[in-house]
């Protein structure tokens, strides 16, 4: 089965440090999403790309978060500087749009803990 | 703004029962609706996808229905098993957009 691969699986870092999360979408998928999941807020959309172009990053704190797609096989989410409130599970998902008839596939997530 | 609500937040039933999970959404202008399963500490596994033009989808013991006009979807699980214990999330894709809007999920426990 094709899958979305996220690295690292777990990350513990100190407040103020830079964190980079990576995602390899399914080959051929043209839409990539970054979601954040917390107990309090549930799943929140941070940003998404279509054909590597950012379409919506309104869910991201702009002063510290940045999302990029250097190429079609890699999406990155960076936090600099990290804060304890950033502790959450970050999910990447990919799919095909505008068709989207197959839905979206999620990766296993990166569990981030900022201490 | 699209809002997705799932009721109940948690459900505990004995093994073997048939059960229904509910999902409601405020804006009927959706492209499709997707049901996911999430095990503790794991990612999201897609269970069923229903396009806006469809009324239901089935996969094994799972059946999902969609009533777009009333803003509702249900996930029916037949003959529940302890292995079905997980959190079930529904998500709608807004028409004209690519993003999914998620409900808060229903945490399901099947007791042996």
Overview of this structure, please?
The complex is a heterodimer of chains A (115) and B (112). Chain A has 115 residues and is mainly beta. Chain A contains no helices and 11 strands. In chain A, strand 5 and strand 6 form a beta hairpin. By secondary structure, chain B is mainly β. Chain B is 0% helix and 60% strand. In chain B, the strands form 2 sheets. In chain B, strands 2, 4, 5, 9, 10 and 11 form a 6-stranded mixed sheet that branches. A 5-stranded antiparallel sheet of chain B has the order 1-3-8-7-6, with no helix packed on it. Chains A and B meet through strand 5, strand 9 and strand 10 of A and strand 4, strand 5, strand 9 and strand 10 of B.
Q: What's the oligomerization state?
A: heterodimer
**Rough shape of chain B?**
globular
Please write the string of helix (H) and strand (E) elements of chain A: EEEEEEEEEEE
Tally of extended strands of chain A? Answer: 11
Query: What's the end-to-end separation of chain B, in Å?
Result: 41 Å
* Topology order of chain B in helix (H) and strand (E) letters: EEEEEEEEEEE
Beta content of chain A comes to: over 45%
- Rough shape of chain A? globular
Instruction: Give the helix tally of chain B.
Output: 0
Strand element count of chain B: 11
Helix content of chain B: under 10%
* Rg from alpha-carbon coordinates of chain A: 13 Å
Our count of helices of chain A gives 0
Distance between the termini of chain A: 36 Å
Reported for the largest beta sheet of chain B, the result is: 6 strands, mixed
Provide the low-confidence segments of chain B as ranges: none
Kindly name the structural category of chain A: mainly beta
Work out the largest interface and the residue count of each chain.
A-B, 25 and 23 residues
Main β-sheet description of chain A: 7 strands, mixed
């Amino acid at each position: 089965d094709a899958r979305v691969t996220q690295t690292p699986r777990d990350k513990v870092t100190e407040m103020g440090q830079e964190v980079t999360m990576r995602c390899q979408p399914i080959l051929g998928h043209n839409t990539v999403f970054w979601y954040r999941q917390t107990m309090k807020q549930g799943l929140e959309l941070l940003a998404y790309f279509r054909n590597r172009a950012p379409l919506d990053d309104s869910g991201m704190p702009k002063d510290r978060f940045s999302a990029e797609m250097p190429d079609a096989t890699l999406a990155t989410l960076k936090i600099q500087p990290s804060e304890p409130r950033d502790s959450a599970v970050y999910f990447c998902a990919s799919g095909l749009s505008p068709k989207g008839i197959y839905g979206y596939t999620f990766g296993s997530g990166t569990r981030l803990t900022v201490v | 703004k699209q809002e997705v609500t799932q009721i109940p937040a948690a459900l505990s039933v004995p093994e073997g029962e048939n059960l229904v999970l509910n999902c409601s959404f405020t804006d009927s202008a959706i492209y499709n609706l997707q049901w996911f399963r999430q095990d503790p500490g794991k990612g999201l596994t897609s269970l069923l996808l229903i396009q806006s033009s469809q009324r239901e989808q089935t996969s094994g013991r799972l059946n999902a229905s969609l009533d777009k006009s009333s803003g509702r979807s249900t996930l029916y699980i037949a003959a529940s098993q302890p292995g079905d214990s997980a959190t079930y999330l529904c998500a709608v894709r807004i028409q004209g957009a690519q993003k999914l809007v998620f409900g808060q999920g229903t945490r399901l426990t099947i007791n042996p």
